[in-house]
């Protein structure tokens, strides 16, 4: 069998992103299985993977892992192109934009925990804004902001601590600024 001229070459970086995205999707499925008293309040376990990828492989790899997680997770959970998909995609986009900007902050003062909290607040902020603009066209949706903000602070801190521990314990394969 001959190779087609249009066949894509798969690199080691592609394989790494695929494996990391798989881990993030798995954690998203765990998140979805955790019962919560209020829809939308989830630990965001997949964000641990995003933080580790950001620190070890750069922002571009973190974007790929996050986008693949949202797409595959929504397909597996049956939410693709539904409100949950768009809420997740919006939160992820704002979270990634925040992490992209946060890379400019001094690393000695802003580590995995503070980045995780920033990303968690951006994620929930994006979701609340989309919910207000599309799903619940009433300012009353913002009455949930303190509850969601508290959850973002708690889960962002916990996820950041776990990511920091993983980064300290895992051998450093290579670091990227991408």
Task: Write a short abstract of this structure.
With 178 residues, this protein is mostly helical.
Describe this structure in words.
With 178 residues, the protein is an all-alpha fold. 69% of the residues lie in helices and 0% in strands. It is built from 6 helices and no strands. The mean pLDDT is 90.
What proportion of the residues form beta strands (DSSP E)? under 5%
Topology as H/E string? HHHHHH
Question: Taking Cα atoms only, what radius of gyration do you get, to the nearest Å?
Answer: 17 Å
Number of helices: 6
Q: How far is the first residue's CA from the last residue's CA?
A: 37 Å
* Average residue-wise pLDDT: 90
Secondary-structure map:
Elements lengths: L11 H22 L12 H12 L1 H19 L5 H20 L9 H24 L9 H25 L9
Helix pairs in contact: 1-2, 1-3, 2-3, 2-6, 3-4, 4-5, 5-6
Q: What are the key terms here?
A:
178 residues, mainly alpha, 0% strand
């Amino acid at each position: 069998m001959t190779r087609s001229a249009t066949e894509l070459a798969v690199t080691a970086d592609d394989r790494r992103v695929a494996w990391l995205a798989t881990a993030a999707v798995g954690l998203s499925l765990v998140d979805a299985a955790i019962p919560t008293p209020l829809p939308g309040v989830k630990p965001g376990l997949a964000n641990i993977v995003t933080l580790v990828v950001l620190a070890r492989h750069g922002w571009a790899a973190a974007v790929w892992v996050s986008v693949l997680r949202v797409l595959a997770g929504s397909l597996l959970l049956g939410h693709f192109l539904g409100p949950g998909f768009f809420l997740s995609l919006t939160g992820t986009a704002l979270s990634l934009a925040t992490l992209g900007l946060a890379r400019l902050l001094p690393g000695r003062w802003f580590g995995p925990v503070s980045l995780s909290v920033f990303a968690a607040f951006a994620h929930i902020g994006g979701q609340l804004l989309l919910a207000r603009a599309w799903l619940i066209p009433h300012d009353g949706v913002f009455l949930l902001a303190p509850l969601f903000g508290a959850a973002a602070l708690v889960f962002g801190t916990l996820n950041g601590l776990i990511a920091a521990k993983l980064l300290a314990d895992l051998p450093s394969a290579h670091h990227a600024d991408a």
